[in-house]
Design a protein that fits this description.
globular, 141 residues, alpha/beta, single chain
Length: 141
Amino acid sequence: MELLHTIFQASLETPWDRFQGLKAIASVSWLWFKIVKGSPGLWAVLDSRTPAERLPIFIKRAGDLPVTITMHQPAFDLNSYLRELTGESESNNGAFLNLVLPILDRWREASLILQRGQRDSAETLGMLEKPAPLLKEFHLE
């Protein structure tokens, strides 16, 4: 089972939606489903490309493991940008940060790419002042 876990982990190192990758692996057989669902390490990678509604599943299934956080530069979408400017919606990265900042004490590695002029940049940096005892590597752009 350890070998399968290693193979699954390697197959998920793609720029695609990690949730869909885990779902595809789990659909192969009952054994693979049990391995995916019961392997917190497969869920301990939180990526801003994962839809925000799926991130709580990752956080829960990762258990108490340290997590790897990756926040990417969002693709430009005019409609989303206009809704964010008028306060009608939150940016994808804003929603991502709202979900991962409360578990800052579990961050092991983090890579955050903030947009220039992003409204929540200063607030985000302020929130990063909380203790992160497990943090080994941090990148900020």
